[in-house]
Design brief:
About 45% of the residues lie in helices and about 20% in strands. With about 450 residues, it is α/β, with parallel strands linked by helices. The strands form 3 sheets. Strands 9-10-12-13-14-15-16-17 form an 8-stranded mixed beta barrel, surrounded by 4 helices. It has a 6-stranded mixed beta sheet with strand order 1-3-4-2-7-8, sandwiched between helices. A two-stranded antiparallel ribbon has the order 5-6. Strand 3 and strand 4 (about 105-110) form a beta hairpin. Helix 3 packs across helix 4 (about 75-90), helix 7 (about 195-205) crosses helix 8 (about 245-255) and helix 9 (about 255-275) packs parallel to helix 11 (about 300-310). The longest helix has 22 residues, at about 255-275. It is globular, with a radius of gyration of 25 Å.
């Protein structure tokens, strides 16, 4: 064993001896080896806190890299990684770049001022702004990044790696294509991913999951017309866990199919309870994940759950992301037709960011377009976002479907939307997602009349 370690130490020292003159991209998978390379890099640079007080660690992961391999082939994937490496080499202030996984890189960064650190980060992000050409194929890629918040030294390397890992996880769970700097809120509730997956399996079986509901308001009447069902995990030890913390794991592990079925069944049962009580006569919207929608037995399972719970399908709306419906057109049309023939409404969620073909869009039996919140967010301050939002609204009317503006959080956004022909809104200005009990209490406070907004 000692002989093996001496051999590694010799190889590492030989490689790192040239770090001053040339950055070396080394692919290492063992954590101990990464730490050894970082220590050697720090030593070789002779860091002096009086001249370069800011040292940080950044872990970068290419988003959806697996899709590149599947679409273009593994050879193209390898060539793409080489191009990424070449660009990272040009970033001034990155003393070490280590390829720590198939599509993951550890970067050691130093700067003399906070402004310089910001410039280095911007340079790293700029690596992914322009397209890559791989075997005559142009492609754009994005990256999620996590940065440590502790000063780098021999004593804090392990802590910095842990912090950067946690920050990267937060970046990927909150939408990807962003940089997140570690803070204490990113500390893992679970010791590892295996534990979290195991406990999520138990949560589905032991009814630790609950549904929250976010209302949708019709602008012309000021009435609530729909409630979107949103899942939460009520963990017995960790409390309420938001979906962005466990949905990505559910999708990665395949648990999303069981989770999706639980959500649909519980939403149907809750609707049945409200109907029996004679309250909240609204449609219920249920999100369908891409994995669910691509499952060949999805429509049959969904219809079976609806029939078992005895709910009129007309009370249900399935929200399906734009990217989901564009993957297999023949299958999409067949599934949507089957659901619509049962009376279920179809809504396209996050519309505007999934590169829909308008030619195919007219073939889909859809009832609603939900404008992605990224466009609605700045309609009061960005003319381009307003133009896109307005165009989608007009498109929806031309297709004779309902149009929902998602993510309405400010009165200024609402006032602009009122001036358009947008039919409905949803967002925190109206209400955040709330529990079924809170929805019922609000309904009773309004003397059993629909909730309204002035």
């Amino acid at each position: 064993m000692k002989a093996v370690w001496r051999l590694f130490h010799f190889a590492a020292s030989t490689t790192l001896g040239t770090l001053r003159s040339k950055k070396i991209i080394t692919r290492i998978n063992q954590r101990q080896q990464i730490q050894a390379l970082l220590k050697q890099a720090i030593r070789s640079q002779h860091y002096d806190k009086r001249t370069a007080p800011l040292y940080t660690l950044l872990i970068l992961d290419i988003d959806r890299f697996r899709q590149v391999n599947f679409s273009l082939g593994y050879k193209s994937g390898d060539l793409l990684l080489e191009e990424v490496v070449k660009r990272l080499r040009t970033v001034h202030g990155c003393d070490l770049v280590v390829q720590s996984g198939d599509d993951e890189f550890v970067l050691l960064i130093h700067a003399t001022t906070h402004d310089q650190l910001s410039q280095i980060i911007q340079s790293i992000q700029y690596v992914f702004v322009t397209s890559f050409i791989v075997m005559d194929q142009e492609c754009f890629i994005t990256a999620s990044m996590g940065m440590s918040a502790v000063d780098i030294s021999f004593a804090t390397i392990e802590q910095a790696l842990h912090q950067a890992d946690q920050a990267l996880l937060a970046a990927k769970r909150t939408g990807k294509n962003k940089l997140v700097t570690y803070n204490s809120s990113h500390a893992q509730r679970f010791s590892n991913q295996i534990q979290m997956e195991t406990e999520l399996r138990k949560a589905i079986l032991e009814n630790q999951l609950i549904l929250y509901y976010q209302p949708r308001l019709e602008l012309s009447t000021g009435n609530i017309i729909c409630l979107e069902a949103l899942v939460r995990w009520n963990h017995p030890n960790h409390g309420l866990i938001a979906p962005n913390e466990f949905i990505p794991l559910a999708e990665e592990s395949g648990l999303i199919l069981q989770l999706g079925e639980w959500v649909l069944r519980e939403a149907c049962l809750q609707k049945a309870r409200w109907l029996e009580a004679g309250i909240l006569n609204y449609q219920i919207a249920v999100n369908i994940s891409p994995c669910q929608f691509q499952d060949e037995s999805f429509s049959d399972k969904a219809i079976q759950i609806i029939e078992q719970t005895g709910i009129d399908p007309a009370f249900l709306e399935f929200e399906i992301t734009e990217s989901s419906i564009m993957q297999n057109m023949d299958m999409t049309v067949a599934v949507l037709d089957k659901l619509c023939n049962k009376g279920i409404s179809i809504s396209i969620d996050d519309f505007g960011i999934g590169y829909s073909s308008l030619n195919y869009l007219k073939q889909f039996p859809i009832h609603c377009l939900k404008i992605d919140r990224s466009f609605v967010k700045n309609i009061h301050s960005n003319k381009d976002d307003w133009a896109i939002t307005n165009a989608i609204i007009h498109l929806g009317h031309a297709l004779e479907v309902q149009v929902v503006a998602e993510g309405v959080e400010e009165w200024s956004q609402l006032e602009i939307l009122k001036e358009t022909t947008c039919t409905t809104i949803q967002g925190y200005l109206l209400s955040p997602p709330v529990s079924a009990i809170e929805i019922e209490q609000t309904f009773h406070r309004n003397n059993n009349r629909p909730v309204m907004i002035s």
